Amino acid sequence: MDWYVLWDYRWPLLNGLTLTIWLSAVSIVGSTIVGVVVGCLGTLPSFFLRRATGAYVETMRNIPVVVKLFFLHFIFGLDAIPAGILSLVLHQSAYIADVITAGLRSIPTGQTEAALSCGHSRSQIFQYILVPQALRIVIPPLTTQYIQVVKNSAVVMLIALEDLTFQTQLIEHQTFRGFEASTAVTVLYLLIVLVIAVLMTLAHKRLVRS
Amino acid sequence: MSDLTRSLIWLPKTDEEKERVWKVLMASLLVIAAFSMRDFRWNVVWDAWPLLLKGLGLSWALALLSVTLGSLVAVPLAVARVYGPRGISHAAVALIEIVRATPELMVVFWVFFMYPILIGGNLSAWTAAVVALTLIAAAYLAEVVRGGLYSVSREQTEAGRATGLSAFQTFHYIVLPQALRNMLPAFIAQFVMLFKTTSLVYVIGVIEFFRTIILVNNAEFAPYALYVTMAVGYFVCCYAISWLVRRIDPKYQLTE
Q: Any CB–CB contact under 8 A between B223 and chain A?
């Protein structure tokens, strides 16, 4: 084994890490926004909204990310980076919507009814009663979803974006040191995941305390 | 809406009426979509259908094989994590969490690269794919099994032990059957995930559904028709599995 190869390839690896991190960060923000909107719409009493959000979630969840990626890149002709971000957002927002819907539904309807009878408006109930409680419930499953985004971001190498996983292939093809490269990159992925897990745990603790 | 408009326009009121309206809407949407895709080169798909079907069969075989092998590994892993002595349980946790935190694509590469270094000799792409998918399935299913084990309350174990069953008998006859029943929906959800993951092993050259589509596309260049077929193929397969989940338990919502 020759770990020195990692030092030779420090710049490609660093570039890959940067790309993976910012691609995941943008996708996490995007999928949270889309997921929260879809998830909240799903809890409204309208029958057709519920069905439409359900259809969105089912469609997005039953098609692999790679298929979406190739669809967006080769059929809709999006550039590599927008296609990557959009496919990750479409994929994970469906899961996040589900988490949000489940979180909001887990709060007993008695609370909403009590607030209504106290004279609060719908938006007030949402803002002061549902959201603060739902946030606490939702954060642990959201952590899993965010980690999924980071992991799924590896597929963008298939449309030649030079992310971390792409660099392992580069090193393998140029030096046959795939093992060392894979180890290093796996450790880097573990670090990213760990950072997300720690940040989300801190956020959760803070919310529970307040 | 004023009373006049309400009397002129029919609006669905009961849930059954709304359900029917929704179905008609969806059906017409599908018809419009199909109509707008009429100029795609469907004859390519038609000519290649034995190949595509073979690819889809291979995807199913990969998913079924690795989920079977994966659950065989997952049960001892989960038991080690929950009941094992400290060293063993830590090892199980490390294995599960490392596999779960690594992108599936990386796991596939890992198996493909690591095998020749550790054991020597070459690994066929097919074997590497099965091993990689089994690893992924085992790590995720171990968590499902753990959830199932925790879902059986402690009192059951205590009652079993109090009536004179051995620890193994309590586990085998009391905890495990209930845990298995509780974790069935989550298990099938993981199977859907795994089926979608099989689309990644094409990178090491296994000719499953995804790769078949790419190969046919390289030969014939009919991306529109082929990619639509691919998306529909995966959707139908995964939807069929999750439909099965709802048949088993209508209350159950699929979550990862």
A: yes
Calculate the CA A172 to chain-centre distance. Answer: 29
Cβ-in-10-Å burial (0-12, 13-18, 19+) of A166 comes to buried
Q: What angle do CA A122, A124, A126 make, to 5 degrees?
A: 70
What is the tens place of the pLDDT at every residue in A116-132? Answer: 999 998 888 888 888 88
Taking the C-alpha atoms of residue A149 and residue A132, their distance in angstroms, rounded to an integer, is: 25
Residues A84/A20, Cβ–Cβ less than 8 Å: no
The DSSP 8-state label assigned to residue B163 in this structure reads: T
**Total count of domains within chain A:** 1
> d(Cα B199, Cα B187) in Å, to the nearest integer?
19
Does residue B5 contact residue A37 with C-beta atoms inside 8 Å? no
DSSP letters along B24-48, please? HHHHHHHHHHHHHTTTS-HHHHHHT
Burial class of residue B166 in the structure, from the number of CB atoms within 10 Å of its CB (0-12 exposed, 13-18 middle, 19+ buried): exposed
CA distances from residue B173 to A84, B60, B82 in whole angstroms, order as listed: 49, 32, 17
A5 touches chain B (CB under 8 A): no
For B198, the token pair is 């099989």
Residue labelled with tokens 């967006």: A72
pTM: 0.87
CB of B104 closer than 8 Å to CB of B184: no
CATH of the domain at A99: 1.10.3720.10
Flag whether residue A141 sits within 8 Å of chain B, measured between CB atoms.
yes
Q: At what angle do helices B176-197 and B49-83 cross, to 10 degrees?
A: 140
Range of the domain at A173: 4-209
Tell me the shortest Cα–Cα distance from A186 to chain B, in angstroms: 6
Annotate B119-135 with b (16+ C-beta within 10 A) or e (fewer). Answer: eeeebebbebbbbbbbb
Q: State the greatest distance between any 2 C-alpha atoms of chain B, in Å, as a whole number.
A: 82
- Do A121 and A112 contact (CB within 8 A), yes or no? no
Q: Which residue of A has its CA nearest to B238?
A: A62
Residue with tokens 């596999």: B99
Phi, psi (degrees; rounded to nearest 5) at B61: -60, -45
Please name which of A149, A205, A173, A209 lies closest in space to residue A12, comparing C-alpha atoms. A173
Q: Tell me: the pLDDT tens digits for A129-167?
A: 888 888 888 999 999 999 999 999 999 999 988 999 889
Task: Quote helix, strand, coil % in chain A, to nearest 5.
Answer: 85, 0, 15
CB pair distance less than 8 Å for B192 and A62? yes
Residue range B64-80, pLDDT digits in tens: 999 999 999 999 999 89
